[in-house]
Amino acid sequence: MKLRCFLFSILACSASGQLEKATFKPYMHFGYETDSPENHNYGAFHYVNVHNTLYPDSVGSFYQSGLFHTWYRPVEIYGKADYSRDSHGYHCMEGGAGYKPYLHFRSKQTPQKFTTGAVAGGFGSFSNGPGQGVPAFNRSRNSPTLGWEKNLGRYGAAQLSNRLLYPLDGVGFKEGTNNQMLGYGYFALPLTEPKQSTAGTDAPSGNYCWTLFFNTSNFSGPVCFFTPYHWAKYSIEHPHLHGQCMDSSLLKVNSVYQRETNVIPAKQWAAPNGDVYYRISPYTLPVDTDGITRLGSMPMTFDSTKWNQLEAWFAGGQPAPASFGDIGKEIHLRRSKPAGFNFRMNKTIRVETKNFIARIEDQDPSASAYQWKGRLAEKAYRSNLVKLPEYYCLKQGSKLIEAIPENEVPRESKLTHVKFPEDAMADFKFDGFANDPITTPLNPEYDYSDPIVDAWKNPGPVAGPFATRLSDGSQAVYYWYKFNEQPAILNSYMDDAERELIQKRVELIHRHWSKDDQYVPDPAQELASLDEGLVVTPPKGLEVGYVPICVHQQTAGERLPEFKRVRR
Hints:
- The chain has seven helices and 35 strands.
- The protein is mainly β.
- The strands form six sheets. Strands 2, 11, 13, 14, 15, 21, 22, 25 and 26 form a nine-stranded antiparallel sheet that branches. A seven-stranded mixed beta barrel has the order 1-18-19-29-30-24-23.
- Strand 29 and strand 30 form a beta hairpin.
């Protein structure tokens, strides 16, 4: 037994008396009742608390942290216990808001961004929004084609909103957003009709156009949707997936929402007696005025009412209202279960949280909430943030690390003198983001041509270029396209009649729904605001049936390429 404890201490810290690299991983999960009524799987929605976790100077390219989120999968696959899934059967909408290391630009005060993360074909393709996804920009920047000839995730999402620009580097927030709620979710819109073929094959294609909706203080409504082809193409060579993918399947709603973080910088010191002491980089979480942290709230599921209203509307009936309905009727509000915490040091050593976090039953039964207790957690540099305990100890012979106050840290450890991020520079990458331009085939220097790439230029945009400066320090260039002439639609294997049909349906939405409508109930907390530079106004004459498409993004202040001026 003594030998095992000794070896455990050796693994925890290899050299007594020296400060060494350590890592801290705070993982949180929140259960929800799987009590949605039958037929409430046409869509789902929830609110996520957008907040800072690391101090601004401590966010490096190593850092990845997903805020409160979940996974939405096809019930035709994941709702069947006897279904034999293979890697190609993994289809899921699993994106959300958070710190994303693969992005190029970030705001120092509000570095979080939103991307969709629509995985198809077992990660054979994923779409992070219009113009984003597989192949990743970082992996194709040295290719002469920049990866645009591959009809994969970058073409998986089509722009639907004519009031919100979806930039190539993800959707950012208003500078200073902290402890405010972003509402987002997906609903199946019948923008197309089902058909018995996909890309000229006998694989069927459904008409569930899973559409991203936002609810924020400066924009609400539909943003973009995943084309049926994005999902159905993976059933072409895998017939067992016919009619099973997200284009043909309603939602299998997850019972768990999570708050994931890859790693927080830390330092460790081994005392001569075998105890190991740790200090982590300051890590913060939001707290409301009542002392309670609510990382998310109001997970909702929707019944078929909106789908039926839209089908009737598209068939010549009355306009469908923007609202999804009322809680207790068309909308089911899910109840939360107690939160779970799985904090670990150096990947494997568990951290006890009972002396600074208390599980509670919140007055909001839908909130993922907990309360801070004791004096180990303290107010951070902002009054609406709480800082986790910075110091921890693994006692000789123990398997659990416990948080401790600073005055219990041995002076000879020098842990109290550690400064983050300065003293972690050698352990982690604090080199910032790539900051190199993200561009498309509309760049005047782009000279590759093939049928997929040519969808950007033939027939091409109708107006532009326009530019907007964003809070992440970049400027985005965009053009206005007729909805059914945007690259994602042209590369989704719709014939002329299908493209004309979807154009008419989108024009109805543009005429009757606005960014100021009330689509879903608001949360009790304050709504977050999106980056003001993303909220756009269509040019005169293009108010209906046209959408903004981002074609280039680079550091603000640098000279832009000479994009061709268009007005047709």
